[in-house]
Design brief:
Layout: H1 2-18, H2 25-46, H3 53-77
């Protein structure tokens, strides 16, 4: 559980940096990363990829968080 939370924080932080944001603080990055992990796992599953190990999970969670940030920004602009 602790590793899952650490991966969530790191994924949220990385997604914020990739999307040129300022981040959402520790709690916001955690939520973004955890929700992004679910989104990333779902998207990777649809594509036939399964993340393996901590690095694979981190990549999947970061990709999901980037997708989530992209969708949030699209909704905010509308």
């Amino acid at each position: 559980m602790i590793i899952f939370l650490i991966v969530g924080v790191v994924a949220g932080f990385l997604a914020g940096k990739i999307m040129k944001g300022k981040g959402f603080g520790l709690f916001g990055d955690l939520v973004l990363g955890v929700v992004g992990a679910f989104v990333g796992g779902w998207v990777f599953g649809l594509l036939g990829f399964l993340p393996v190990g901590i690095i694979g999970t981190l990549i999947s969670a970061t990709a999901g968080a980037v997708i989530l940030l992209f969708v949030i920004r699209l909704i905010k602009k509308a």
